Every structure is written in structure tokens, then in C-alpha cells.
Amino acid sequence: MPVSSLAQGASNDTQRNFCNRFSEWNTKIDRPIADREAKLEARRADRLEKLTEKRKDRDEKIAENRERWSENRDEHFAKLNERAQNDEQRQAVADFVAAVKVAIATRKAAINAAIQAFRQGIDKAIADRKTAVDDAVQSFKDAVSAAEAKAKADCDAGIDSATARQNFVNSLKAAKEQFKADRQEIEKLKDAIKPLIDTRKAAIDKAIQDFKTAIKKAKADFKAVFEPGSEDKDENDDDDNGSS
User: Fold this and answer.
1) What pLDDT was estimated at residue 16?
2) What share of the chain is helix, strand, coil (3-state, %, to 5)?
3) How far apart are CA 204 and CA 220, in angstroms?
């Protein structure tokens, strides 16, 4: 925006010929606005593409990990069945397998829900920011258009060129200051992201802890049949890293 060039260091000739050169000033002002809008849309498209790709990569990684862990568990379950020597032990294995599968399904659903809620929150934050930016840009463009219309009307009415120019400059500066204030308000929308991250983390942490608790009980019930009288040992579950 050539606001500063209009407002500062203008020669007397520039001031006197403002009305004669008004169409030239219009071009100098309107073209940069259009260019900035085009760049804004390009950046938005690029960010959306990267976000979509990032989510796709994450989903594929989670699916691959879950498939690998499922295969490892199936092998482990098969070995447990081989150890069963009687009906009671075979039932203990069946109960253990069922408990583990329920725990896995519960954890998976909880983590999926946490990820989905997080993404929906991010999408809303992006949409809210887009709306706020679009509104700010449109308000700025409207203010510039109003300033241009007023300047043209002043010039057509025979108002002194220097006076028309100064009024025009003041209007553009006011539009610029308002746009700056609007942008500062828009930056506050970033504050909506951290609560989403914290909520997702808390939900995933709870899902993992509930899973560990369920597995611990399943192991204890299993040992009560296969290893009666053995001390219950605390074991860390290495089956999941929190992403499944």
C-alpha cells in the first residue's frame, strides 16, 4: 500500500495534481490488494494440502502399527493355547484372550475419538480464522473503496486537490490501522489450539492407563489358573506406544 508515500514527503506538485492523477493512485492501491489476496489463497491451499497429507501419513502409520501388534498378539495367543493342558486352562486362555480383545477395542475407540475430536477442533479453529481474516480483508477493501469514492467525489466537486488528497490519505491510514487492529484480534485465535492439544493428551493418557489396568487384571486371572499361588508381578505393557 502506497499510503506512506501519499502521506509523507509529497511534493507540492503531487498535492496539486492529486485529482488529475487519481486514477493512477487507484491502480497503485488496488493492484497490491488483489496480489495479496491471491497470495493469501495460495498459502491457504498449501497449508490445507500439508495438513491433509500429515493426517493421512499419521493414519497410515497407526494402521500399520495396529496390524503388526495384532499379528504379534495372535502368535502369543496361539502359544498360550498350546500351553493349556486341561479344560480349566483352556477356558482361562479363552477368557484372557477375550479380555485382551475387549481392552484393545476399548482403547482403540477412545484414542480414535480423541484424535477425531482434536481434528474437528483444529478444523473449526482454521475455519474461524479464515472467516475472521476474510472479514478483516473485506472490511479493509470496503474502507479503501469508500475512500476512493469520496476522493473522486471531492475532485469532481472541485474541492482543492491538496485537501482532497489529505482526506484520502487520512481515510487510508484509518483503514490500515483498523486492519492492523483486526489482525491482532485474529492472532488471539491461536489460543484455542493449546486446550485442544491438552484435551487430546489427557484422553489418550486415560485410554492407555485404562488399558493397562484391564490387562493387569486379565493377567492376574490367567495366572490364577496357570500359576496358582504365584506372586502377582507388576509388568509394563510394551504392546502399545499410545498411538493405536
Assistant:
1) 59
2) 85, 0, 15
3) 24
- How far does the chain reach from its first CA to its final CA, in angstroms? 51
Of 227 and 182, the one with more pLDDT: 182
State the pLDDT at residue 12.
52
pTM: 0.76
- Residue 14's pLDDT is 53
Q: What angle do CA 239, 243, 244 make, to 5 degrees?
A: 65
228: left (phi over 0), alpha (psi -120 to 50) or beta: beta
List the one residue out of 4, 2, 5, 7 whose CA is nearest residue 31. Answer: 2
* Among candidate residues 126, 104, 116, the one with its CA nearest the CA of residue 58: 116
Of 155, 198, 147, the closest CA to residue 173 belongs to 147
With contact defined as beta carbons under 8 Å apart, do 206 and 110 qualify? Answer: yes
Provide the sign of the torsion angle of the four alpha carbons 95, 97, 102, 103, taken in this order: positive
Q: What is the 3-state secondary structure (H, E, C) of 138-200?
A: HHHHHHHHHHHHHHHHHHHCCCCHHHHHHHHHHHHHHHHHHHHHHHHHHHHHHHHHHHHHHHH
Task: Label residue 151 exposed, middle or buried (CB < 10 Å: 0-12, 13-18, 19+).
Answer: buried
CA–CA distance, 92 with 98 (Å, rounded to integer): 10
77, 202 in Cβ contact below 8 A? no
Percent of the chain whose pLDDT exceeds 90: 62
Distance CA 162, CA 18 (A): 7
Q: Distance (Å, rounded) from C-alpha 17 to C-alpha 14?
A: 5
